[in-house]
Amino acid sequence: MSKSTLAAELNITEGALKHGMPYLAMGSGRPLVFLRWFTPDHANPRGWMRDAEIKMLAPLAKHFRVYAVNRAPGMAEGITMADIATQHAAAFQAEFGGPVDVLGISSGGSIALQLAADHPSAVRRLIVASSGYRLDPIAKESQLRYGEAVFAGRRALHLMAPTAVSSPALARVLGVAMWLFDPLARPKNPADTYAFVRAEDAFDLDARLHEITTPTLILGGERDAAYSAENFRHTADGIPDSRLTIYPRTTHTGVAKHPDFARDVATFLTAETP
Predict the structure, then answer these.
(1) What pLDDT score does 4 carry?
(2) What is the pTM of this model?
(3) How far apart are CA 18 and CA 154, in angstroms?
(4) At what angle do helices 190-201 and 81-96 cross, to 10 degrees?
(5) Are the C-beta atoms of residues 141 and 233 closer than 8 Å to each other?
(6) What DSSP line would sit under 217-231, residue for residue?
(7) What is the mean pLDDT of residues 58-79?
(8) Nearest by Cα to 190 from 48, 73, 35, 15
(9) Half-sphere exposure of residue 12, counting CA atoms within 13 Å on the CB side?
(10) Burial of 18 per CB tally in 10 Å (0-12, 13-18, 19+)
(11) Which of 186, 218, 199 is closest to 87 using CA atoms?
């Protein structure tokens, strides 16, 4: 199927929610908000990254009108994850007028958890994928070093290699490739990148997981280099109405590509309330 045919079939549109939060929408049915992973820019993806996102979300777009949403541009210095969650709650209320299903992946999962804790009336059901109640040490260090480097105008992409693969040897090889690719992936507004990195660095919902009353599904990968299986379990154990699925032999980015991912999300969101 050609790109133009797929775009027409999925009824793809672009826009911005309140606070200028960019979105790419596709499919039909009840709205499902997909909160994107960590991205250098607070913008909709372009080129091959846009194609990859559409391909990943297309199975879900058969059941829902999927809104792929990014963070608001122009983030203030010192913004917190609670501030970011409040922006999202206001944007969702303005756009949808009531609670909405939310799927957060990686950094998007951090926002989704904060949103469910602080603004429970904004979330109907919650899916958190490749994410947990706080960053694990490797992700925390890599992401903060990345943010500091881009803010200083230095090459930075290679600093994220340890979160992509669990093998130190493979991380070094990947780091070289990422160092070479860096000029093509520099954020247009490094201040935005750094502001979000610092907000997520301070993110920790350990003491508040029990406050999340929204029905929640946690999806993780057994071989995730950024988050441990223990993090996924701890997050699920702390949320009263939650369930956990860990995909065997699956990496951080592999969860959203897993053959069961779309089915598991759709089944959870369409199940009758007990």
Answers:
(1) 63
(2) 0.95
(3) 32
(4) 110
(5) no
(6) EEEEETT-SSS-HHH
(7) 96
(8) 73
(9) 18
(10) middle
(11) 199
